[in-house]
Structures are given as structure tokens and as C-alpha cells.
Here is the input.
Amino acid sequence: MVLGRGGYKFQNWAQTYGSTPELYFQPTSAEEVKEILDLARQRSKRVKVVGGGHSPSDIACTDDFMIRMDKMNRVLKIDKDKKQVTVEAGILLTQVNEVLAQNGMALSNIGAVSEVAAAGVIGTGTHNTGITHGILATQVVALTMMSASGEILDCSESVNADIFQAARLHLGSLGVILTVTLQCKAAFHLQEIQLPSTLPEVLDNLDRHLNSSEYFRFFWFPHSDNVSVFYQDATDKPPCSKSSWLWDRFVGYYLLEFLLWISTFIPRLLPGINRFFFWLLFSGGNDRVDISYKVFNFDCLFKQHVQDWAIPIEKTKEAIQQLKSWLERNRQVVAHFPVEVRFAKGDEILLSPCYQRDSCYMNIIMYRPYGKDVPHQDYWSEYEKIMKRVGGRPHWAKAHTCTRKDFEKMYPAFGKFKTIREKLDPTGMFLNTYLEKVFY
Here is the structure.
């Protein structure tokens, strides 16, 4: 019998949301997961499954039962012929990356953070960049899931196909993901070239940039026209890192945290801080080569508030120019760098922000230096208004103010997903406050 414990306090990585579940479980098998669901059904309790807890929103919070899958973290099968790996849902991508590298394989794209669980990383629509690459969930070719009734469902494009297209971005609302099978490729190195540019140059030549690199993204430094462009492409070159640059970057970011803390007392310093750090860390460019996942990953050094929306790719210039103009008209509002702009290929996953359209992700950040909160609501509110005007859809893991009425307009397949959800979970076992706002 799996035992739950009381008194556990959950807090997400950014320390912006938390909860105290009545009972906290760490099952080691599907049989134990079923025991937890049976107990929840008997006591009329809801169940929330949590992975790495990295989502900067309240999507993982609950006052009822919480399941952390970190003890179901095995690699179950490696198929070198098909270049596929099957893993338990609670395994972190850090472990997956290492195991794949040992077997001459790699994921074709991963996000900036690998301290995330396999089921969680697909559950909220994690993405990176590359207009020929979809969100990470598009690399899932099969999965198994336990429904509220305790039934285990095999899902793929040929088995339970409708459920599969819902479960690849499940929000934790359909059941408990048990295993995930990921499509991989041969291991590869990436060369990252970082170059300074300007916002007008990048926006006026966006198609050229997109076609110049497999994994193109850029940082825009608000209160300026400064932009840092990143090209990442597969290469046969051996790993080569500029240790002095990496050291300067590490030291520079801790200097940044100190200056951002000072700016919370003197906000007018912030535009100058943005320009200074562009000059210090990004104006000279950089070139490095490393194993693919080490280049994809990016150290999130500070706690932060984050918003990230996917907009139609043709609206990229319009949206950024609107945000820039608003900041220029409202100089009392300060914005931390970077505005990170990435791109993803369209897909057929029901609740994917990239559903049936190639998309631009426009990510804004307000750092919380030394854990101190910063005034961000005016910035957040205007950003959301702009995103909605240009047809945007919010990243599911990030905090936003959208409700069911918004999602019904944003997602053509929202009704289909909701029907599947209610069939699999008719009593609402897997709902929480966040999901009630989404669906009801």
C-alpha cells in the first residue's frame, strides 16, 4: 500500500505559487498510482500530478492529493534502429539527455531547461525554437496513461488517436501519464553563433534570418533598439567553448542581479542597465560548439515572472513594434531584458499554441532579484492586450489571465479536447483551480 504524507508544502521553481496538499504521494509503479486514484475516488478528492515544478504559474497547485512521479524515472527501452526511447513519466530530461548521448542519440529539440519531467514537459507545451521544429510534444510517438477509473490506455497515431492528440498536451487534466516514447535522431553537435544587431534590421529581414539557421532566435533589449541574434546549427566540429566568455557571462549575470535589485529602488536606472548589459555580454558576439543539449539548455539564474505567447508568425513585427511603442509612451513602466523571440512549426495537437499554424513565441521576463517582487502588472496587462489583438495563444505553463471564453475563441479544437477530457474524467478528479478557470 502506497502511503501519502501530510504537511508537504509545494512551491514552484520561481517561488511565485505554492500550495499545501492534504496528502503527498511518490508512487513507484502503475499499481501504486491506481491505489492513489482509488483512494481519491473513495474520499471524493481531486488529484494533481506534478513533475519538476518549473511552471511559473499555479497549474500544479492543489489542496487535495498531489502525486510527484519522480520515483517512476526509469528508461524502459532504447530502440536504436527506430531511434526511439521509452521512459517512465517522472524521469527528468537531464537523465534522458545523458542516456541518449551514451547510446549515440539525441532529441532534435529541447527547451532551455532540462530539470523537467518527461510527462510535464509535454503537458504544458514546452517549446524551443526552429521553424522546421514543432513544440517538444511533437517528438512524442506513443504514451500510456491511466484514466480516472484506473484503466491504462495505450495511445499513438494508430491507437486511441484522438486521445493521443489531446494527451500530447494534456495539462494534467486527462489522467496520469505513465510512460512516454520519444522520437530521437543521431547524436549531434551544435554550433551557436551569437551576433549583435538592431531591432529594425532583424524585423525587416526576418525571413532571411529564419532561413539562415535551423534554430534561430533573438533577444530584444527593451528601452533600446539593441538585439542579440542567435544561430544554432548542427556541425561536425568538436566541442569548443570560450571559457573566458562563459566566466564573464556568469560574473556578469550576478552583477546584473545586483543592479536590478538597485533598480527596484530607482526604476529610472533600468533602461541604462539594459543597454549596459547588452554592451557587456552581447555586443561582441560569440561562437561556441558543444553537444546539442548543452547548447539548447540555458541557465535560469534568477527567479522571475514570465509571460510567453505564441502568435501567427506573420504578426511578429507588428506585435513587437506595438510593445516597443507602448513602452516609449509609458516611460514610468520599466521592462527587464530580454524579450526572447523564438519560432515553432505548426502541428495538430489539440491544445498546442501552434495548432495548425507556424508561430512566433514572444517571451517577456521580469526578474525578481534576490527574490524581491517587482512591479510588473502594467507591463503584463498591456502585453496580453497586444497578444490578443494579433491572435495570440498563451503558453500553458506561464501565468496568464485567460479564461474558458478566451480559449474557445483561440483554439479551434478546444471543444473537442473538452469532450475527451470529460469522457476520461467525468467527475473532475484531475481538476484544480487553474483548470477550472480553463474549462469552466
